[in-house]
Amino acid sequence: xxxxxxxxxxxxxxxxxxxxxxxxxxxxxxxxxxxxxxxxxxxxxxxxxxxxxxxxxxxxxxxxxxxxxxxxxxxxxxxxxxxxxxxxxxxxxxxxxxxxxxxxxxxxxxxxxxxxxxxxxxxxxxxxxxxxxxxxxxxxxxxxxxxxxxxxxxxxxxxxxxxxxxxxxxxxxxxxxxxxxxxxxxxxxxxxxxxxxxxxxxxxxxxxxxxxxxxxxxxxxxxxxxxxxxxxxxxxxxxxxxxxxxxxxxxxxxxxxxxxxxxxxxxxxxxxxxxxxxxxxxxxxxxxxxxxxxxxxxxxxxxxxxxxxxxxxxxxxxxxxxxxxxxxxxxxxxxxxxxxxxxxxxxxxxxxxxxxxxxxxxxxxxxxxxxxxxxxxxxxxxxxxxxxxxxxxxxxxxxxxxxxxxxxxxxxxxxxxxxxxxxxxxxxxxxxxxxxxxxxxxxxxxxxxxxxxxxxxxxxxxxxxxxxxxxxxxxxxxxxxxxxxxxxxxxxxxxxxxxxxxxxxxxxxxxxxxxxxxxxxxxxxxxxxxxxxxxxxxxxx
Length: 541
Fold this sequence. Notes:
- By secondary structure, this protein is of the alpha/beta class.
- The protein is about 65% helix and about 10% strand.
- The protein contains 22 helices and 9 strands.
- The protein has a 6-stranded mixed sheet with strand order 5-6-7-3-8-9, with helices on both faces.
- It is elongated.
């Protein structure tokens, strides 16, 4: 039965054309393997006859050499092809996940599991298909070789084929569901674990480590059951195959023995018959590869789920009157924001305030273009710079992390760091701006300021700061604010904040309550409302 990921596997299998070399190499090695029992038979008959025939010995040595060298070349080619196909799949899936935007329909940990684990498993499809195809051809070739030796041997062997095919079919059917469940639950477990790791400080502060551990590990019994199911199925098939092979060998050996007695076969032919029986039963011996093939299909299905998810529709926003203008019309995002309507003129300093869970970060994500609203319209114009409370500093060096995503030279990078009040920190590093990020110990505030510098380096028309100065003291925050105004004069700035001092400096305050705009206005005007004051003082509304 076809699965959604089968087309992806076909496309992946054809990506690296070196699979043709692998097929050619496998054909040579398989041919040598099929000729080897016959060469061994001739050599044994020669030895029993008490004579020495150089061509016979050379033939045997040649077949052994070709098979050994072919296997070695096959290992190298298989590793190279698998690596390249895996990289291709990871690139496609990663690019599509980025295209899906934020928030993604796939949890972060699950997405990581698909990009890493599932892509690696699916990347082995060319090698698995070639191995299985070669095994089938070897089996067919072995039957033909038996028939050429004595048609009776081929008939005896063919009587076992229906039972062998039944074993293979049963194995594939019983393994498919367990493999799919195992892959799916592994992704869910990764998603839960990543969420827990991201919120370690919150978990520790709230004393909910034990409850969180239970939540993260809740899918573990299902994962264990799927793993045990795969193991039991494979174990059952292996011992059945282990009984089938000797039974077939005994039957063929008995028929060959009668052939020797009747003078149709030699002792060497009897040994060759045993070798061909082993080759003929190769498909049954490839049960682990069949399990891997089932895992490959399950992984490809998970990758196809990502690639088949259409990216959100992003209509080109109507251009506002001037660069930096921002308008939101009846914007709704799930239960986080409801019917938000705002108009922010260019050059306005906006503070977004509210209690935890009010929807501040979601509003910032919508304004900055990181999240698409479920309904409503967002109109913005110009370049957007975004800074986070916990920035992910990407790039090989400090300078690279600041210019990441921006066409900024050294002068602009330095100016951005000076505006973010982090230049003095950077120049004290062993190699300054060329210091590798891996060798750069940063406090929370320093990391925040580097993230802020990265946003400033984009020279944005709209700067969105989502608690991006939360780790700074109020004096430093005020200094940074003035430096940003000097570096980016007249730019629109939206700041998510919990500090009354920051709201006081803003031109406009947007007060959120349970995902709705409770009020907008100056901090001084809103301060007259006790509920607004409670946002900063922690009192009851």
